[in-house]
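Entry for FE2/S2 (inorganic) cluster complex. Fields follow.
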Amino acid sequence: MSYQANFRVWRGDSSGGGIEEYEVEVNEGEVVLDIVHRLQATQAPDLAVRWNCKAGKCGSCSAEINGRPRLMCMTRMSTLSPDEPVTITPMRTFPVLRDLVTDVSFNYTKAREVPSFIPPQGLKPGEYRMQQEDVNRSQEFRKCIECFLCQNTCHVVRDHEENKPEFSGPRFLMRVAELDMHPLDDAEGTGLDRKRTAQEEHGLGMCNITKCCTDVCPEHIKITDNALIPLKERAVDRKYDPLVWLGSKISRR
Ligand code: SF4
Ligand code: F3S
Ligand code: FES
């Protein structure tokens, strides 16, 4: 069944903009990104939108649909009321480049600040052995498609530009957690204390476990329960255990 939907789309650039309204055809089985493409093909050829796979895997088409951060390619029109307008705005936490396209380079900066996996010294690739439960833990975190919806949603930075330098956001705190819990990561052997950097460089203490990041993750990764809370527990154990504290002081000499 086809119908005409009222689409309200934010148009503008870094100097400002506003909502523009369109009447546009919707057909059975379509997703919000289909409708945006139809708008481009018919009424708004210069409408800027970022997308790539249309399968929920590239993480490009993030936006806010009726105020909720979502992937446009994975939001079925059948889940939205045909009688209500559909409002699409760019992700709020990142600067607008044009229309629905934001500058997400904040996230790439934060990604570069997390040192990558440090292989165990003396073991060759192929000799690595891990328990299946450790493999499963990493695999959950590696489902991340870097859509940055969690980064966009977290209240620590959403309306607080001033927190951005100190806070890496859920996606990259999850990366620190993944590496810190990885049984083969040899960061400590090189003098890198991932728990300390989580607190002092990535702003772990600013997360007050509201779980909004987890709520919007299209890969259903339990970011808060499986990454952020365990990382907090590990970091606190280290800080308040006098033996661990003493050991870290001696080993740093
Ligand atoms: Fe997107 Fe989930 Fe990855 Fe965050 S953790 S960037 S919401 S896939
Ligand atoms: Fe933000 Fe998620 Fe923590 S929304 S406050 S990073 S639990
Ligand atoms: Fe790739 Fe939507 S277009 S996730």
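NOTE: The longest helix spans residues 223-240.
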